[in-house]
Structure formats: C-alpha cells, structure tokens
Amino acid sequence: MHELSIASSVVENVLEFVSVRQHINKVLAVKLAIGEFSHVEAEQLRFCYMAITRQTSIQDSTLEIETVEAVVRCEECSYRGRPKYWDDALSVGPIPTLQCPNCGGTVEVVEGNDCAIKSIRFTTEDDGLAIPAA
Amino acid sequence: MIQTIEASPDEIYDIELEHSLLEANSQLAKENRALLDRHGVTAIDVMGAIGSGKTTLIGQLVERLKDRFGVAVFNGDATTSSDADLIAEQNVPVVQIATVNGCHLDANLVGKALRKTALDKLRFIFVENIGNLICPAEFPLGSKARVVVVSVTEGPYMVRKHPHMFLGAQLVVINKIDLAAAMGVSVTELTQDVHKLKPDIRVIPTSCKTGDGLDEVTATLLAV
I want to staple B47 with a disulfide (CB 3.0 to 4.6 A). Which of A84, A91, B13, B129 is the partner? Predict the structure, then answer.
C-alpha cells in the first residue's frame, strides 16, 4: 500500500497550495500524471485520497489520474520509442519491459516513471484578478 | 514550480504544477548515497517476499565477507526484531528499522540508520527491505545495487506477478534451488522470465542450505 503514502503526499501538497492562497474558494480536482513504468494502482490511490481528504477543506475534490506513456531508448541500436510489452504473462494487461523491441538488448526508460501532481483546478472567491503568479 | 495559469470562463482555474511526489524520497536517497560514497561504503538493498530467504542469504554473505571487510546490516521489519537478532549473533553491527505499519523502507528511515552507524569502519551495508514485492520498488534508498530474492517455494509465476520489482534491480537471486524438484518449479523458466523483463540482468541460482551459488553472489557484490 505505498499508494497511501503517495496519496498522503498529494493531500499534503494540495493543502499547502491552498493555505497560501486565500482567494481559493474550493478545490474541484487534482490531476496526477502517473507513468506506465511507475508502480501505482490508480483505484487504490483514489480510494486513499478520498479517505484522507475527508473532513479537510478539499474533501469534495476529485483525483484525476492521467497515464503517461512510456518511451525507452536503446544504446545498442539507437531505438527510441514505445517499450516492448510482455503480452502473455499472467497479468491483466500487458507489462512494459526493458527489452529492446528492435534488438533485444536492455533499454533505458526515457519517459514513464512519472508520479507527479500535474494540475490543481479550483474556483476563486472573486473574479480571479488577484491571482498570484506563485 | 508553476508554469502557466489558465482561466476558464466560469472562473475555474487550472494551475499546472510539475510536482513530483517521489522527489522527496529520491532526494534523500541521493543524500544517503553521497554519505556512503564519502565513506567508501557500498550499500546493497535486498528485497523479496516474506520467507524468500533474505535474512538467511544476508547471513551467509556476511559470513563470507566479515573477516575481510567491515560489514553492517540494517534489518527492516514491520514489527519484530527476529531477523536483526539472528544477524546480531554474527557479531556485526545491526540496526533494526521498525516500520510498524509501513510496507517498505524509505530513504528517510535508512538515513536515520546511517547516522547511527560508524561508517568509517565499513565496506558493506546490507539493507534488508520489508518482505513485500511491490512497494519497495518505488522507493530507492541510496544503495549501489538492488538485489531481488525469489525462491522456488513461491511458485513458478513470482517474476511475472511482480514485474516492477525486477526492472529496477541489478541482481536477481533465485533461492532454495535444492527444493526446485520437489516444488516442480523450473529455475530455468524463472530465469527466462527475469530476462524477458530485463535482458542484461544477472541471475544467480542459490541454495543457502547447500551453499550453491553463494560464492558467485559474493563475487558479484564485490564487483559492484
């Protein structure tokens, strides 16, 4: 359940974001970017988020999760692109691997390790003109 | 870091952030690594399921290394000190890291253990992670190599069931091979599964009972 510690970190960051911006009326949604190579289960993350935000100022906000497609690079053959997937493992979906789809060597992950807050959507008390840059 | 501010007509604002949630741990892991490097200490993170033989393997490796090098062991365990007690019998420094309800070690806990340890006298620290094949993958600790231990008693599908664990590892130990025939589990097929995920990773079949493969693991770690 590392989803719990990740969800705690999301909530902590969002509450901090809100606490220094007095003009924020209500947080509507928090969007996360989760890479294909990152080991986070979206449904558990949503559940943890809901549980932790209960009785906080952001309790009705929703957690949106956007999957970031993996990109790998092979030093051997200079391949760059989508990873090779292991289709017939027992998994519910294909597993991205570090095997080069072109030469069979070992690739490096260029994109797809993400686990980040991408954006926060909220309403403001006024017309929003007083929104600070940071 | 805030990049753009965008207003939508109904006064809903979307602020884009690029705030990595694992950054805090990664940063602490880098600090652990820098501290270890300054003292010339190699930390080895040993991960694997409960009962895969992590503690026994570490014990065997400590036995092979402790007369030549300073060796310490950090035992991560949710509740008990049984693993730490076992290693302490070998008269090497042991730090028990109790995570209580935590499912993995993190760089902060390992950092605390490092600050309790006299690093100058050491060449190796074995960090035994919590028995869990999912969560530790996401939390680097600052070690120079991550070792995954799977044993044949866990069945034939351990690798494909927990692929993420292997992607970030540098060495895989397939343990309890003396029981492979009795279990009807093929060490070759487990090895092939690992190589489907990461073709260049070293896989060493071992038995802590017969001693098979343990010299090879020791030699591999000495070359890390």
Answer: B129
How far is C-alpha A79 from the chain's CA centre?
A: 26
CB contact under 8 A, A99 and B167: no
Percent of chain A with pLDDT over 70: 91
Q: Give the pLDDT confidence score for residue A126 in this predicted structure.
A: 59
Among A2, A99, A121, the residue with its CB nearest the CB of B103 is A2
Give me the interface pTM, i.e. the ipTM: 0.79
Q: Judge whether residue A16 has pLDDT over 80.
A: yes
User: Residue A71 pairs with which residues in a beta bridge?
Assistant: A111
Render pLDDT for B166-217 as a digit per residue (tens, 0 to 9): 999 999 999 999 999 999 999 999 999 999 999 999 999 999 999 999 999 9
Given an 8 Å threshold on Cβ–Cβ distance, is A98 in contact with B199?
yes
Q: Is residue B3 part of a domain?
A: no
Put simply, the answer to whether A37 touches B167 (Cβ < 8 Å) is yes
Domain A2-124, second-level architecture: 2-Layer Sandwich (3.30)
Provide, as residue numbers in chain B, all residues whose Cβ is less than 8 Å from the Cβ of A37: 164, 167
Interface membership of A95 toward B (CB under 8 Å): yes
Helix (H) or strand (E) holding B162: none
∠ at Cα B32 (B137, A71), nearest 5°?
40
Burial class (CB in 10 A: 0-12, 13-18, 19+), B109: buried
